[in-house]
Amino acid sequence: MTRVLLVDDDPFARSLLATILTRQGIDVVGQVSDGDEVVEAVDRHHPDVVLMDLVMRRVGGIDAISALRRRPNPPRIVALTSFAQDETVHQALRAGAVGFLVKDENPDKIADAVRDAAAGQGALDGAAARIVVDRIVADGHDTRRADAVRRLAALTDRERDVAAWAGELTNDQIAARVHLSASTVKQHLSGALAKLGLSTRAELAVLVDRAGLTGER
Cα separation of 39 and 43, whole Å? Predict the structure, then answer.
């Protein structure tokens, strides 16, 4: 069972998240209310994933993420906040978060994001994914497209079908669109990431966009 630590200064938000995740079969091993409590809580509870609010009273989520990432074998971190703003998304990802979600996201997607993070994948909601793609591909898009197409050619047809939606849809949503089981979608995503030498869905989304794979859906 995936073990999760919740970090949020709003007790109602923590309670709601704990209820959502527990109902989805995820083990909420601890809850803290500010960023300066995170390192100690991780040492005490050993979570697989930290679901991290970014705006807190004493120590913000960006600083807390950086502090965790400086430690050996840190847990995977998914940033969770009210607004997917351009610089906030990039600050969280640069600090070491593997995903970024807004708090009003569908509960199923929040649970899927936690599972994906625990499995070594990234997790971005649609708005955050678009921000990441736009920022990275804006510089040198044309010169990088040929290389992106060449790299994606190593994927099977099914891997390409799944990869085309990796930055926008959850595994369950991809499964419904391409007529596969969610577990098979997860296997194809893991296979694509391994073949391409990538570690997160965000990186895969960038490569897909560069190659124009979205037009093949």
Answer: 6
